[in-house]
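Lab notebook: predicted structure, single chain.

Context: the supervisor wants predicted structures on file for every construct in the current expression panel, including those that have not yet been purified. This is the next one on the list. No modifications to the sequence; it matches the entry in the shared construct table.
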Amino acid sequence: MLTVSCNKVDNYPEPDKTLTGKIVDAETNEPLYTEQPDGTRIRLLQTDWNESPIPQYFWAKSDGTFRNTKIFKGKYDVTPVDGPFVPLTEPQKIDLTGEADVTFKVVPFLRVTLLNSSVNGTTVTVSYKIERPSATFKITDAKVFVSTTSQATNASFDNKLSQTNDLQGIADDVILATTYTANLTLPAKRSFYIRVGARSEDNVSRRYNYTNAIKVDIP
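Prediction complete. Output recorded below exactly as produced.
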């Protein structure tokens, strides 16, 4: 008795095209710092074979850069979404045949600046200011994130060592005119990463806008 079986073979080539890029503040050209994961996503719509394409997504890194090396050849509309910035109304259109690099300039909901930091024994003092490039939503809170990893974001921080500043009951014009200072007592003989974030009542993601992370060594 002879048994014959038929197996379907996927003979399509694997996706091997590369898309890289970055997301920056449209005014300062500084990186848009975010969280990873659960920060900003990159949305791809392949437009050359389907009038109603299904969106594809992948995460940007915490410094606003991104790289995906597993994309099919084709024409795409590319847009950063879900991040702490005013949503873009138009995608960038690319014809991906090998490797493409794109830059997105966005208006962050808030801009946080780390003005100064100092270490005195086991006490770390940081000062910061909050700006609002676009008069959009009420500023709700700021936080000094402390972590043993370089991420130091809302996705990775030590809750006992970090410090929250509730701003909901304060008028935005007062917040924007104030320099804030936080004093943190950290364990001795260890190294930590510190980053300041602030957020507003945006209707996009309720994610923080961040400063860059700094490393402090506690004697």
